[in-house]
Fold this protein.
Amino acid sequence: MSDDFVLNAKAREDVGKGASRRLRRLAKEIPAIIYGGKKKPQNISLAENELAHALDNEAFYSRIVTINLEGSASQDVILKDVQRHPAKAKILHVDFLRVSKTQKLQTRVPLHFINEDICVGVKQQGGVISHSMTDLEIQCLPADLPEYIDVDLTDLEIGQVLHISDIKLPDGVESVELLHGDEHNLPVATANKPKAVVEEEPAEEAAAEETPAADQEEQQADSDEE
């Protein structure tokens, strides 16, 4: 899987907010850091357009990425954090975690809900599905890391709650929450009854109800005078 995503990087010696701003503005590169494992953290920079293209792919967030660093051996990493500008569509900084093919890693992968529109609670009972999670923290070896996890809602009925333990995980993949005990078996999705629809009253009736009795009497008196 490490060949699926490859990024070319440069070592970065000049650090700090000012240096990072100059790097983004003048060189069109994004500051980043690689950490973890037995090596020291390493500051790097990535081409902005190459990184932005990778971030547009959902799989990039949950797959092994190979970083080719100038003058050094390539490193296998996973994406751990992306810092973005709060008001502009700009990437500010990226964090990567080194991984070993022989050691389990922990990361989050997206959940893909399938058969939601034909599940019992929706198709037969007229309910609606509420999602409590959109991704799940898992533990596995890099070779077993899934791009996403399917959550089948076919049999979910109104009033039922689907929990983490109900998800069929791929071989070699474990839920980090469930490793902490049954009390961490959190809800993932629920089939709820649809909200009651309140019929709107005709405008004339609504206006009459909102008009105090005294106002109505005054309006009647004016009408009689005419």
User: Anything to note?
Assistant: The two ends are 88 Å apart (CA to CA). The chain is about 20% helix and 35% strand. The domain at 105-192 is CATH 2.170.120.20 (RNA Polymerase Alpha Subunit; Chain A, domain 2). Helices lie at 17-26, 48-55, 120-124, 176-179, 203-210, 213-225.
